[in-house]
Design goal:
This protein is an alpha/beta fold. Helix 1 packs parallel to helix 6. A hairpin with a 2-residue loop joins strand 5 and strand 6. It has four domains: 165 residues, GAF domain (Beta-Lactamase, 2-Layer Sandwich), CATH 3.30.450.40; 173 residues, Rossmann fold; 57 residues, no CATH class; 58 residues, Orthogonal Bundle (Arc Repressor Mutant, subunit A), CATH 1.10.10. The radius of gyration is 30 Å and the shape is elongated.
Length: 500
């Protein structure tokens, strides 16, 4: 007597077709929808769902839902261990419940709320190796018959296909991310160029702190290379194979900064159409670099301090504590000690972030590095433009050495790039450089004024010079100065410079 085959020939052909989809380049969301829709039709189920596990939040959320109430279903989340799906995800073992009304494990709230009557349910785990990443479930048969063990076998096959699709997508994303990281690593744009004593001291300090989780604060003027130093600290330390996430604190208002740092849940506010993972979560086991930390509002400072003290945070609109292992590096061009003394920056947060402090020297403090930097930038832009025979005239170098470079290395790089683009393609001349031929001097100072008044006077003159240099173009001036355009606009209003 021969046994009945588990699947018919038509079913096998259909599964082969789906397997081909899995190995194709289809969009993952579209592919998962196809898999679950096909499973629903082939198994003649009334409804089906694919739920993915958020391991940190210990919740399942509906990635795909098929059936009459699919839109309502997608609004819900299930705690790990809650209901049939939650138990399957927690235990990693399939469950077949012929009559949910007789099973105490059934979580009936969703069905009752959306008005969907459920009799039986079959649920199987989705696995990636030994890790459970979600579940696939079907609810009831269209003809009213009970879900059978044979149905469980087929459902398991579809769960394996969905797991394979997600695994392939993750591998592709990982390869793409590694390629991007490799390109960044190979790019000379992330090199720290110079042989001066001040720069060597900075790099030595960075290498010392790289192997610890210690919070590090990098101080220095705009354009000195604080982000480059943060990258160096990350990439030579034990976290080099984990993410380095960068966030500019001056670029966003407080509410958006909070959402960027901590993420948010779907429906947390108007426009929050889906869950967003924040920078803290993305940087798990890696490094989070908070640039321009001195621009952070008092309210946001308090929230950041809470995370650093407690070691956990909540997504905006969420109530699940999320723990991450993140190394913090921050940077500012402000006199942060003065900001603390004048109560504009929280003292307790300052001590949390300022365990190690490194000062990035200005270009004026390492003028002997200027020729090396000029050669470095010239080599990059010559190759980009195809002007391999391009040289720099002595007169142009003399002007470069005379200039004060208030925008530091960033301004020097922009100046060389502009000269290469606007020059004759053979030799860079002084007039190709977007800098004054006169040595830059500090604004006229006098006795009898406060330090704050002197700083304001300098800022006003510095902004005026850069705006005039760029014919009033705020975006270009902000780029040269190494600040955000929105911050520049606030300073222009503050100092009454509108119209320049």
């Amino acid at each position: 007597m021969t046994s009945k085959p588990a699947f018919s020939d038509s079913t096998i052909d259909r599964l082969k077709e789906i397997s081909h989809w899995v190995s194709s380049v289809l969009d993952l969301d579209q592919l998962l929808e196809l898999i679950i829709d096909t499973a629903t039709k082939m198994m003649q189920a009334k409804a089906s769902s694919l739920l993915l596990l958020d391991a940190k939040a210990r919740k399942l959320y509906f990635k795909v839902a098929i059936g009459a109430r699919k839109e309502e279903v997608r609004k819900y989340e299930i705690n790990l261990g809650q209901g049939i799906a939650g138990i399957v995800a927690e235990k990693g073992e399939p469950l077949l419940i012929p009559d949910v009304s007789k099973d105490p494990r059934w979580y009936k709230q969703i069905s009752e709320t959306i008005g969907f009557q459920t009799r039986s349910i079959a649920c199987v785990p989705m696995k990636m190796g030994d890790e459970t990443i979600g579940v696939v479930e079907i609810i009831d048969k269209q003809d009213g018959s009970a879900i059978q063990d044979e149905d469980m076998k087929m459902l398991t096959v579809f769960a394996e296909l969905a797991s394979l699709a997600i695994s392939n997508a993750r591998k592709i994303n990982q390869v793409q991310r590694e390629n991007r990281d490799l390109k960044e690593e190979l790019s000379k744009k992330y090199q720290i160029i110079g042989e001066s004593a001040p720069l060597k001291k900075v790099i030595s300090d960075a290498l010392k702190v790289a192997n610890a989780k210690t919070s590090t604060m990098i101080l220095g003027e705009s354009g000195t290379g604080k982000e480059l130093l943060a990258r160096l600290i990350h990439h030579v330390g034990p976290r080099k194979d984990k993410p380095l996430i960068i966030l500019n604190c001056a670029a966003l208002p407080e509410t958006l900064l909070e959402a960027e740092l901590f993420g948010y849940e779907k429906g947390a506010f108007t426009g929050a159409l889906a869950r967003k993972i924040g920078k803290f979560e993305l940087a798990d086991e890696g490094t989070l670099f908070l640039d321009e930390i001195g621009e952070m509002s008092q309210g946001m400072q308090a929230k950041l301090l809470g995370v650093l003290q407690e070691g956990v945070f909540y997504r905006v609109g969420g109530n699940t504590a999320i723990a991450v292992d993140v190394r913090i590096i921050c940077a500012t061009n402000r006199d942060i000690s003065k900001e603390v003394a004048e109560a504009r920056f929280r003292e307790d947060l300052f001590y949390r972030l300022n365990v190690v402090q490194i000062h990035m020297p200005s270009l004026r403090e390492r003028r002997e590095d200027i020729p090396l930097l000029v050669d470095y930038f010239l080599g990059i832009f010559k190759q980009e433009r195809g002007f391999m025979e391009l040289s720099l005239s002595k007169e142009a170098m003399d002007r470069i050495m005379e200039y004060g470079w208030p925008g530091n290395v960033r301004e020097l790089g922009n100046a060389i790039e502009r000269a290469v683009v606007m020059g004759n393609g053979k030799q860079l001349l002084p007039e190709d450089l977007p800098i004054s031929s006169e040595r830059t001097t500090a604004p006229t100072m006098e006795a009898g004024i406060t330090l704050k008044e002197a700083e304001d006077r300098f800022k006003k003159e510095f902004i005026t010079i850069n705006l005039k240099h760029h014919q009033g173009n705020r975006s270009k001036a902000a780029k040269t100065m190494g600040i955000q355009r929105t911050y520049l606009s606030r300073l222009i209003s503050k100092y009454g410079l509108v119209g320049i």
